[in-house]
Design a protein that fits this description.
alpha+beta, four-stranded mixed beta sheet, 8 helices
């Protein structure tokens, strides 16, 4: 079972969905905005990747954060930050059975499928 997490209007999500569909990979889509994002999701992902990989510092949401929040992000508070601001999660997050892919790179997807 493959689950893609993200937001539907994200250009990178659109590219990743197109790649999966073009390679006949069945998946379910979990929209952060419509379906929510829980501490459980984030903690599960953080057991597989470093928090710095999961945090999207190129997003508009990141740019709009106050400087104090940006400089104080750490492993201890990143879960709460991502729960409060799901669009700070780098997209897409693709959960395969035992593998987590963060972001979209066609080469990485090709190696995984």
């Amino acid at each position: 079972m493959v689950t893609m997490f993200g937001i539907k209007n994200c250009d990178t999500i659109k590219k990743a969905r197109k790649w999966l569909e073009g390679h006949n990979v069945e998946y379910t889509f979990h929209d952060f905005r419509a379906d929510g994002l829980t501490e459980g999701h984030i903690n599960h992902w953080l057991s597989q990747v470093d928090w710095a990989v999961l945090l999207n510092k190129r997003s508009t949401t990141w740019r709009n954060l106050d400087d104090n929040t940006k400089t104080s992000v750490s492993a201890e508070n990143v879960v709460a930050l991502l729960c409060d601001n799901p669009t700070l999660v780098k997209r897409p997050v693709l959960q395969l059975q035992d593998t987590l892919l963060v972001g979209f790179k066609a080469d990485d997807y090709a190696k995984s499928f």
